[in-house]
Amino acid sequence: MIQPKLTLVTLGGAFGLQNVSPFCLKAEMLMTQLGLDYDMEVQADPRKAPKGKLPYLIADGRKIADSELIVEYLNDITEGRVFAGLSARDRALGLATSRLVDDHLYWIFVASRWLDDEWFPNVVEGFFHIAPRPVRGFIARRARKEVEQTYHLQGLGRHTQAEQEGFARRDLQALQDAVNEGDFLFGGEPCVYDFAIAGFMAGVFDQQPATWVTHVANEYAGLKEYTERVQQRVGVFGRITE
Ligand SMILES: N[C@@H](CCC(=O)N[C@@H](CS)C(=O)NCC(=O)O)C(=O)O
């Protein structure tokens, strides 16, 4: 295979994490596991990404935006290596689990950062350091309003704090039960679905300071050990390691 020139554009680091976005970290883990030769570039302003979100991949000049579309592209150029060895059932369960993480638990975690008055100052410094200091707070508060509206529209934002914790606990328990047997989800080597789970959970466990979701997640020791195992095996960590 003649490999295209690949550049993975990510949101970069914040809160003690070298790669703060779970979607970016999943792509980084997969590209490393596949042994691809690639560069990483930071774009701290998601509005400059093709779809206003990160990551995107530049492959010989073509931009592929969205981690799932990146996964599909990587599967194509490696002639099916991403999903090799996975049965249709593995792929069904892997996809369902990834959706739980990306489209449900992710939003609870986002809210635990953005909508907690005590934690929000970390968001201002972690995500808006690129804005000039005099307008930083204003821009961050405007963005916070959008997060609040999105969380409400998604539906989770209509629940009490105790109910949100209940939703988070059921998700975490389901993830822990899914990964509790064997080293990885589907055998002796991690696959893209392990990267979706561990890429997300690494940020939950290792961000500084903790949010309430981190405190709750710390009670799921099996999930924490698994998250560490995946990172160790692929050699890519959410946290800053040196
Ligand atoms: N479905 C997308 C989600 C990407 C995403 O939500 N990225 C976040 C960072 S974790 C982002 O760029 N957010 C910026 C924004 O929504 O303005 C993927 O899988 O790539």
Quick summary:
With 242 residues, this protein is α+β, with helices and mostly antiparallel strands.
Please give a structural write-up.
The chain is α+β, with helices and mostly antiparallel strands and 242 residues long. It has two domains: 6-77, 3-Layer(aba) Sandwich (Glutaredoxin), CATH 3.40.30.10; 88-234, Glutathione S-transferase Yfyf (Class Pi), Chain A, domain 2 (Up-down Bundle). The chain contains nine helices and four strands, in the order E-H-E-E-E-H-H-H-H-H-H-H-H. The protein has a four-stranded mixed beta sheet, with helices on one face. A hairpin with a 2-residue loop joins strand 3 and strand 4 (62-65). Helix 3 packs parallel to helix 7 (192-206). The chain is globular and about 50 Å long. The structure holds glutathione.
